[in-house]
Amino acid sequence: MGCLDPTVLRPRSCDHGQYVFVVRTAQASEPTTQRPAIHVQKTGRRALPAVRPVHTRSERLVPVCSPKLLSGRNRITQASDLLKLPLLRLDGWTTWSKWFETAGVSASARRGPVLNQASMLIDAAIDGQGVALARTTLAAWDLLHGRLVVPIDVALPLENTYWIVYPKLASHEAKVVTLRDWLLAEAADDERRLRTVVGKGYAGTKR
Questions:
Q1: What are the residue boundaries of the structural domains of the chain, listed by start?
Q2: Residue 89 pairs with which residues in a beta bridge?
């Protein structure tokens, strides 16, 4: 299933004069092999002979929360301290269990709010309702602008990441090259800036 990379909806738009930047979303769509369009999708790499895939960025799950949640008695110095706070999630306890295991903490399931959209999860974290495990791509803008922080630098790498996919026949068309290069430049800039904000966990390490 395709998933829109948030980069394409940011205020710093892709403005190249003669080109009109059109965004269309679709569920479970395959990239066409004929039209000179670029699909930005979240998936693993698949072998489609008439399509050229270009990997844009790696993606990880990191714990995020509002800076105001960490004030007062909620000081976080180690992974186990997160168990004192509400743990927001999209599904069951499985993902949090994997994260705590990676962090070297034995943790049984905890009760907490369950939300069915990643955007709702991030909004709840920004609002100070708890700690969420968020995809770095989706949380990047809020991390870079201080609305979210990463209290513990432990991350879970994800297999499904973002790819630019377009027909090989259109690979040399100016508008395809322009959009592709812009997306890759934005992704690279995010990677660089996030490393300074997220810390060691962004590379998948733990402390």
A1: 6-59+158-203, 60-155
A2: 114
Q: First-to-last CA distance in the chain?
A: 34
Residue at token pair 């922080």: 149
- Sign of the alpha-carbon dihedral angle for 28, 26, 18, 55: negative
pLDDT digits (tens, 9 = 90+) for 3-32: 445 554 454 555 555 555 555 555 544 555
Beta bridge partners of 151: none
Instruction: Please tell me the distance from the alpha carbon of residue 13 to that of residue 123, in angstroms, as a whole number.
Output: 23
Of 166, 162, 161, residue with least CA distance to 52: 166
CA 183 to chain centre: 15
Longest C-alpha distance within the chain, in Å? 59
pLDDT one-digit tens code per residue, 176-189:
888 888 888 888 88
For residue 85, give the DSSP letter.
Answer: S
User: Tokens 């432990």 appear where?
Assistant: 154
Domain 60-155 is in which class?
alpha beta
Q: Is the pLDDT of residue 147 over 60?
A: yes
Class (C level, CATH) for 6-59+158-203: alpha beta
